[in-house]
Amino acid sequence: MDALIIAAGFGSRLGAISSSKPLTPVCGVPIIELSIRQAMLAGVTRVVVVTGHEADRLEAFLAELSLRLAIAIVPVRLSNWATPNGYSVIAGATRCDGNYLLLMADHLFDVEILSRLITEAPVDCGLTLAIDRRVDSPMIDPEDATWVKMDDRGFIRSIGKTITEYDACDCGAFLATPELAPAIRAAIAAGKAGSLSEGVQILAQNNRATTMDIDDAWWIDIDDPHYHALAEETAPWHIAQALADIGPKAEVA
Length: 253
Known about the structure:
Oligomer: single chain
Number of helices: 8
Structural class: alpha/beta
Radius of gyration: 17 Å
Helix content: 25-40%
Shape: globular
Order of helices and strands: EEEHEHEHEEHEEEEHHEEHH
Largest sheet: 9 strands, mixed
Low-confidence stretches: none
Mean pLDDT: 95
């Protein structure tokens, strides 16, 4: 199983802490390293990372990390990294073989969420999205959340940051198939900006996008200093194995 991690954006809301969001430390370890370690614990054997902002610095770190973890890490650089995140998916998906675990570089997850996505996602769907029904959770930023409306079977009916009727929050972890990138291209061809959510909406319109409820599992979107502080406080309890496996920490240039 490949993982595709989107790490191209500027991350301006976290700029007071770090100039590179993926390299921002949590518990003394860059978020991107923790993300890759959690994916490996879930069964991922190869990682594709889409880079953009501060690409040279990030790619240098990934090259060292690949040697240290003994896993293939393939960087794919976007020349115009200011484009919506769907463009990152399109670029990265070209380097993935078959289905892949799709993650955002500023999110951390209980490994259980990632393991369940890999093992429980329906084989006859174009995409399975991890969702959290705890929409009032203090771990969720209502100003930045992507909301999801589902039918009674758990299939996505609508998804977006501005929808007014919703049942859950998009956790930023997907089991994607080769159907996703063409769906994003179709959204762009129809005049949309090119976000990942717009591609998911295309799949949803064709009953090809379903969900997996994470129940009471932990996840966090580290998008600003407040949520970074929450991650520092809560992550040690939820990613203990990944942290325990880390020996002397590499310096981030």
